[in-house]
Amino acid sequence: MRFEVNPSALAGGSVRIPGDKSISHRALLFGALADGISNVTGFLPGEDCLSTLAALRAMGVNIERVNDTAVVVHGVGLHGLEAPEKPLDLGNSGTAMRLFSGLLAGQSFSTELIGDESLSKRPMARVIDPLQQMGAKISSREGCPPLHVTGGRDLHGIDYALPVASAQVKSALLLAGLYAKGPTVVREPAVTRDHSERMFKAMGARVTTEGGTIRLDSGTSLKGIQLKIPADLSSATFPLLAILLSENASVELTDVGINPTRDGVLRILRTMGAQIQMVDQRMHGAEPVATLQARASHLQAINVDPALVPLAIDEFPALFIAAACATGTTEFRGLAELRVKESDRIAAMAEGLQALGITVEELPDGARVTGGTFRPGTVDSHGDHRIAMAFAVAATIAEGPVTINNVASVVTSFPGFENCLRELGADIHCKHEV
Ligand code: S3P
């Protein structure tokens, strides 16, 4: 599948953004382990979350889909999961693979976790090593999926300093901690998204957070909750960026999650001169949300503060596009983790930007991107949803038509992305390979 995009004068408007991917995964996983029912609205019906849903159903969890974005999870309690008949296929989802590793390490039965070509290349030692320290037994193919998780192990809590800032690893250890004897303590080198901690607390788990240290006491159980999932700021970034780069359009996005452990993209774009307002700030349960208003802006190059990287970890493809439209040279450092996401995002962005005539100096842990004008051309997304969406946005202000190849993965996080851009006035078409 490919996107064909023609230069477009965006009109802007008001668009709805699908639910938060990270929170949707957690709502299903934690809801499944709870005692009682969880009623979830604002669920993201993206392929990644549907992989999590299917895996839980395969272990006997009743999950009703009331409509596209409303689910009812009938919790089976911490010890109510059943052995699946087949390997659990987690598709493209690194979050699912890592969170399930922690959850399954504590079960009485063994499981096999598999994924697609991209997921099968992603590093899992970061989660296997600490889980083994807790007493789990997990084998892999040289540190990558498929993973075989042996059941019936007695886990014990550990005090673990994460070598790499990762919310996925933190969450996996907390899930395993539900099954461990003694407290589980995770120390973060930098604060990462805290959706697990917020949801655990809302479900009655004994979790405390102090600075970068998270502690889960053993013997804790979860109770079902009512959850209204915010719109995903990571998805909102693409229409937001399209408007910032436009001639004179403006946009309003409602109910977007603005959790301070996720809002690095807003801070970075504002430092570059983006006109973004947050109004009507309020809480959706444990998560803060706001209406985001943005208008066409002149962006200036900056040196991106590496301290903001974990808070904007998924937004760098979009931020590279912003840098390519800014006056001057923007420097990104501290992005080594981007090389092990759904694709090597530094290489994929450098390659695509160069194909469209932008000057990029690739660095081992980042890049220097010099602002310019996008020429017409063809870009490969490397099967990575966020690379595909970033270049689709860039294409709206190119000097001629741009084709983005290999875009089927967009549905992992943002079903309806093309429609959303089209509603804002973009001339974008999705074509199937001939
Ligand atoms: C996620 C955490 C991040 C992020 C991913 C979702 C999560 O990964 O990139 O898209 O839901 O916990 P890391 O924690 O590995 O940085």
Number of helices: 12
Termini, distance in Å?
Answer: 9 Å
Overall geometry comes to: globular
Q: Radius of gyration from the CA trace? A: 21 Å
Name given to the CATH architecture of the largest domain: Alpha-beta prism
| Highest CATH level, the class of the largest domain | Alpha Beta
Side by side, the strands of the main sheet go: 23-24-1-25
- The SS-based structural class is alpha/beta
CATH superfamily of the largest domain: Enolpyruvate transferase domain
Total beta strands: 25
Low-confidence stretches: none
Query: Roughly what percent helix?
Result: 25-40%
* Distinct small molecules bound, one entry per kind: shikimate-3-phosphate
The total number of structural domains is: 2
What's the CATH topology name of the largest domain?
UDP-n-acetylglucosamine1-carboxyvinyl-transferase, Chain
Taking the sheet with the most strands, its summary is: 4 strands, mixed
Write the layout of secondary structure elements.
Elements: E1 2-6, E2 12-15, H1 21-33, E3 35-41, H2 47-58, E4 62-67, E5 70-76, E6 88-89, H3 94-105, E7 111-114, H4 125-133, E8 137-141, E9 144-150, E10 155-156, E11 159-161, H5 167-177, E12 180-181, E13 184-187, H6 195-202, E14 207-210, E15 213-216, E16 226-228, H7 233-245, E17 250-257, H8 264-271, E18 275-284, E19 287-295, H9 316-324, E20 329-332, H10 345-355, E21 359-363, E22 366-370, E23 377-380, H11 385-395, E24 402-405, H12 417-423, E25 427-431
Parallel strand pairs: 2-17, 3-16, 6-7, 10-12, 11-13, 23-24
Antiparallel strand pairs: 1-24, 1-25, 3-5, 4-5, 7-9, 8-9, 13-15, 14-15, 17-19, 18-19, 20-22, 21-22
